[in-house]
Amino acid sequence: MRWLVGWSSVAAGFRTGSYGAGAYETSGYAAGGYATHGNAAGGYGAGARATAGAVGEPDEGRTVHPVGAQLLWGDPDPLWAVGDWRPDEIRIVSVGADTRLAVLGCCAATDEELRVGLFAARGGALRHLSAWPGSYTAVAQVARRVTVVGDLAGARPVFYTPWAGGTAYGTAALPLADLTEAQLDIGHLAALLACPDVPEALGDSTPYAGVRRIPPGHALVLREGSREITGYEPVASLAVAGPQLAPAAAVEGVRDALVSAVRARLTAPRHAPETLPPDPGPVPGMGPAERRAARGGPAPGIGADLSGGPASATLALLAAGLPGVPGTVLGHGTGAGERLLAVTFNDLAVPGRRAELERAGAMAANPRLHHVVVTGGDESLPYADLEGPLTDEPGPSLTEAPRHRRRLLSGSADHFTGSGARQVLDAHPARLADLLMDRQRRHLLRPATALAKAGGPSANSLFVPLTVYRAARRLARTPYRAGIESAADALREPRVDDAASPLSISLAALSWTRPGPAARWLTGEALAEVSVRLMASATRPAPSQRPGEARASAALARYASDHRILEQAAEVRSQRLHAPFLDNQVVRACRALPKSLRVQPGARATILRTVLSASGVRELPPGWGAPSHAPSTAAARAGLRQCADPLVSLFDAPLLADAGLIEARTVRKAVRAAAAGEPVPLDGLADLISTELWLRRLLARRGTCWTGTAAPKQRAVAGGVTPPRRPTLRS
To answer: Residue 608 is inside which H or E element, if any?
Structure first.
């Protein structure tokens, strides 16, 4: 785990310790590691005193500071970096005694560009701090004004909470909850299960009461404890469509952004994993990569996923083909012989990926790639391993994190993944309404016909495209408030759409909001509370986005949040996962794609093929870019069938029932039905199971993230799970 934390207050009532109040100007530091002692579930936690890397307390004054932290600058508005940060991942520039900028993560900006960005931020131009290639968090301090910039996707969120007469902030929510001894926010958990991709239901809340989250594309500005949340992206008008780039120019922008994102990782210093146990020597049936993975560490250098899909293949081929290493053929140039480590996961328990594996093998024949195939049987299915570390928040990826970790153990110290490509490149069905609002009806024919074919033979008729068109027109004519109110009404109605086809799912997505798949198993009281939250949001000013843009942004934020949870749950020590498709510049370039191009069937594969062709990669295997969702669904169903008994026992006395969100008997029945092959929404069950697992790990932890004379006496959620006090007629 790696996170930032700091605070801003009117007067410094708490000292940072013996760090001093001067600026800590450096290009990096040797981190002391994150504290896990005293934590039964792993992840966050701390003992009674600081671990190596923390500094002792002064003899006078009250002190509080994170365990295992490194101070970046001190009082009166201190900032710490906590966790196993690499030296090159922390950069600080100063242009005066009280004007400085900290950039943490992978950032390709030069020192001069960082100074220019700091000058721009001093004048209020925050967008400059988010425009460099890479994935990072920027914190600027100008006198007593502190600005923390979040990213566009939501993979690097920023949280804050009132504390000690000011505001504490961080890039993780649980440390802030420990600082304030916060309890669970049951209403947020209900909204997360009922409407996971509806920002109006979630708002700015987190699973911890009092801890708030800033929206993607915004920055948190603190002035002596007072806080302000401001957006740094230009706002488009709902009435008039903004100017659109030509398709060729927009695709070229995506290529430039992707190449810059990949190059930012390649130009960073190479890293090797920490010392591993000695290699026991040759083992029958195991190569060096398998023996290293069994010892629990990644390979040194650069690697990438090569699943056979277009996103991971694009990143792998770009990383291997850019000038320099890796991807240098033996005998050519400096660093010759270093090849990109390409990892393919072969699921032996679930058939159906033969075509993808053949495409991955064909691409791995490139002499710049070193191909490693990781096999997994029944032990790698989703739900097969319910143990794992505590993450910052719950997410459906907790159910399959051990499955991903099995693949990542054979990866490199810096590993590329194609995560997020579908969300930033594909068009959400609601974008069809945006086309109608822009009077571009001619571009609706092909996507409507594709939806008709996806609905099966019975849906392949002339009336289906007309049905899609009517649904898009209805959404284009529905005001924001009416759409939110209709979603609130839908939460109070029973849902029986178990056998949902791709066509019905797309038609349901043609709305401002809709309930999530787990809403059918929540109690009536929980759904009523979420409905009230939706009705309250309907009275607020309508967003400046069109329905398709709003739904696409919400889906991206939901996916980026779950990807962050997956990084924490499947973390391999000394390894960094890189998802360039979630970088700010790549997200911006993808948003500049014309809607008429995005909605066409196969647009993602076409765009990525053009990106590769412009980069010199023109020979791709047949069938490259063909969509495939069946294997993941089959793996989830196989995992439920194999692990039905442990999952049923998980809900014998669930904490979600103690919170008043579900009835245990209903969920146990749904798990048995899914294991028997009945048409039960598997993603809804994944939401319930992962939230229950997260609650159990949260309550099993010991210690807090803070130490010092003024450290909190209790950890977050020390009181356990208690149902909310709902008003009654008597009260």
So the answer is: helix 603-614
DSSP 306-360: --SSHHHHHHHHHHHHSSSSSSPPTTSSTTTT--EEEEEEEESSS---HHHHHHH
Separation of alpha carbons 654 and 465, rounded Å: 45
| Residues in the chain, overall count | 731
Query: pLDDT at residue 133 above 80?
Result: yes
Token pair 């910039």 is found at 149
Q: How far apart are CA 510 and CA 475, in angstroms?
A: 6
Number of Cβ atoms within 10 Å of the Cβ of 540: 12
Model confidence at 441: pLDDT above 50? yes
Q: Would you call the peptide bond into 175 cis, given omega within 30 degrees of 0 as the criterion?
A: no
- Three-class SS of residue 198? coil
Report the distance separating Cα 216 and Cα 698, nearest Å.
Answer: 26
| Cα-to-chain-centroid distance, residue 526 | 26
| Residue 286: band (very low, low, confident or very high) from pLDDT cuts 50, 70, 90 | low
Per residue in 371-385, pLDDT tens? 999 998 899 999 999
Burial annotation 679-711 (CB, 10 A radius, 16+ → b, else e): ebbbebbbbbbbbbbbbbbbbebebbbbbbebb
pLDDT of 296 > 80? The answer is no
CA 709 – CA 57 distance, rounded (Å):
8
Residues 6+ apart with CB under 8 A from 556: 153, 154, 216, 420, 423, 424, 587
Residue type, 580: P
Q: How far apart are CA 71 and CA 21, in angstroms?
A: 10
8 A C-beta contact, residue 115 and residue 382: no
- Taking the C-alpha atoms of residue 546 and residue 111, their distance in angstroms, rounded to an integer, is 39
Q: Which tokens go with 154? A: 């939501």
Neighbours of 222 (CB within 10 A): 24
Q: What's the angle, vertex CA 96, arms to CA 104 and CA 13, rounded to 5?
A: 75
CA distance linking residue 23 with residue 545, whole number of Å? 41
What is the mean predicted confidence (pLDDT) over 683-697?
A: 96
382 within 8 A of 683, measured Cβ to Cβ? no
Whole-number Å distance between alpha carbons of 211 and 539: 23
Q: Tell me the C-alpha to C-alpha distance, in Å, between residue 579 and each of 11, 265, 399.
A: 40, 10, 20
